[in-house]
Amino acid sequence: MVITAYLDQKREEVDRFLDSVVPDARTPPTTLHESIRYSLFAGGKRVRPILAIAAAEAVGTPTKAILPIASSLELIHTYSLIHDDLPAMDNDDYRRGKPTNHKVYGEAMAILAGDALLTLAFDLCSRRDLLDGLDPLRQVQIIHELAVGAGNLGMVGGQVLDIQSENKDIDLATLQNIHTHKTGMLIRAAVRMGAIAASATPAQLERLTSYAEDVGLAFQIADDVLNVTGTREQLGKNANTDAQRGKKTYPTFYGVEGARTLAEQCTNRAISRLETFDAKADPLRELAKYITARKN
Amino acid sequence: MVITAYLDQKREEVDRFLDSVVPDARTPPTTLHESIRYSLFAGGKRVRPILAIAAAEAVGTPTKAILPIASSLELIHTYSLIHDDLPAMDNDDYRRGKPTNHKVYGEAMAILAGDALLTLAFDLCSRRDLLDGLDPLRQVQIIHELAVGAGNLGMVGGQVLDIQSENKDIDLATLQNIHTHKTGMLIRAAVRMGAIAASATPAQLERLTSYAEDVGLAFQIADDVLNVTGTREQLGKNANTDAQRGKKTYPTFYGVEGARTLAEQCTNRAISRLETFDAKADPLRELAKYITARKN
After folding, report:
1. Which candidate, B78, B74, B72, places its Cα nearest to that of B95?
2. Among A65, A240, B23, B212, which is least packed by CB within 10 angstroms?
3. Where are the domains of chain B?
4. Closest by alpha carbon to B141, among B204, B200, B229, B87?
5. Which residue of A has its CA nearest to B145?
6. What is the pLDDT of residues B135-153, one digit of tens each?
7. Subunit contact B151:A83, Cβ cutoff 8 A
8. Inter-chain CB pairs, A–B, below 8 Å
9. Cβ A123–B144 below 8 Å, yes or no?
10. pLDDT tens-digit profile of A216-236?
């Protein structure tokens, strides 16, 4: 299979779906919706939704419900970027080649756009009109996965550890702890949400969870490497910011080449978790490779 | 019935429950959980959870599920206060007689504590271990009520309108629009969530929704009046801040006495919505009166 064609197709499906459910910029409060759309449609790769879709495909039960479920992950991801970029947090001026949300709409609106996106993710996952084919108990479980992955013991917890570690001499265990939570837990939720939507068996869910944990780690190591090796043009945001901020990353501990090797090992381990799955899991296998090899 | 005894008892139940489900300050990330607890246990009146509990009682089907459902509303309410108090928003230094969250923990942690509380509300509502007696379809509906009430077309939308209206010469319709969303929609969600948890009939739900809309308006008018007439000691925050900020409120349009009369009319209308309910709706009736007569 050609992963780039697969990614393009799924990304378009997710974008079209998000465009259909997120209020347009003429819906009051207009500035809020304009601000939400500014960040939501800024060219994101939709990695988390596509992981959810590919996990459902691997299980093999296609379901109409997967698109709303998958897209909710992008609402969470976008909110986290808007809040992370705020002056009180990472104070970033650029994201995906454009000024950050608060640079355009101001801090108050950026905070509220993030709050609204976070809430909208749960709004979307709890709709019955779009998800009437989904067993309600599975729907509740999916919502719970999203909340756990995004919350105090998941993504938000990781962001707390991250800001507390800036300019500190952290060890490798702390770095791993940050990444497991900040990036890993939402990627884990993405794969599990897709699998649960597709009625995965407990054994399938367990294997897919291990896959997700390996992929999450590979993703973050690759991100750290890109921060060192990428250009501003490739990344759409300033490059080499980690070193400037005195932030310890995988390249700090392993060097760039060592970190690359580590990411590849994670990718291979992720793929090996899928050995009991047939060709319907090929998108997941290719996604694991893409995540390490990507250039932005 | 004696409403103060009822309020005390329910508030203690909600507090005890929240204390049991929110991680303690020794759970990593410790500062996040300390910051969450600082604002969550600052002496809130728990009006929204108690409205949910009283609505369930009015329907007459007691359910163990009501406490988690009701308490989730306080997680949303607390997050909204933390974010509203931020320097980029209302820039308030005091809340419930204590320094605001960002004054103690810094802006970054206050933003993240709010994000975590918002997410935790949906975590709580989507738990099956605590809510195994609840029909999953009703659980999904309850989660959806919470998301709609708190989100872009609910509470967050109202907060956007509110910050956009500061120092502007808004008319009465705009003021009502702000309040319907900022305060009204979450109070409406509270009553509806309680009613749905207690398996309300469509007719019961409709009447309780009208009750909630009237109570929500009474609540906000009473809040506006208190901002003018209350002291810093009574309110636990600075008094008369609306006038200082050039904010138009119900007393601006109706005068203090006129606004008081309007709040009482809303209260009476709310109570009249309950005429088909028996004595089990007395807590709702007394709550409507309390909300207008309260001194903080």
Report:
1. B78
2. A240
3. 3-293
4. B200
5. A123
6. 999 999 999 999 999 999 9
7. no
8. 155
9. yes
10. 999 999 999 998 888 777 767
